[in-house]
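Translate sequence into structure tokens.
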Amino acid sequence: MMSDEIITGWTWERLVGALEAHADLDEEARAFGALRRPRKIRTGRQLLRLVLVYALGGLSLRSTAAWAEAAGEVSLSDVALLGRLRSCGPWLAELASRLSAAAHPEGSACEERPVVAVDATMVASPGGKHKSPTGCCTRPTMWARSASSRPR
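Result follows.
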């Protein structure tokens, strides 16, 4: 099963290989607007790597930009990185949808239901003991199967 391959013992090359078996990262990044003007970040692979380093690495935007330069990926500012990351939502949703469809080709009982990402971040005021939600933003990110199975 593909999902097990990604979870246990993955490397960057193995992860990209699993993704590229189901999607052309460069073409789809351009089609979904994640790569508009390929100047510094030229490929979908580069952009995906930056997204994952930022999202999973626990780094700030500035630290992620510094990591990218030190790793020889790309040299860009934290503000430029933020701009690139902001445009990745629809592309990442499509990638997640394709991986979900590939991992479960038989579908499920809730095939037509949307998957929703919920930001339930809790923030305490300085010196405060009470935490309050930051707005609890919910946003539909993908449909359970694939883009072609969205309700009409």
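Note: Residues 1-6, 134-152 have pLDDT under 50 and may be disordered.
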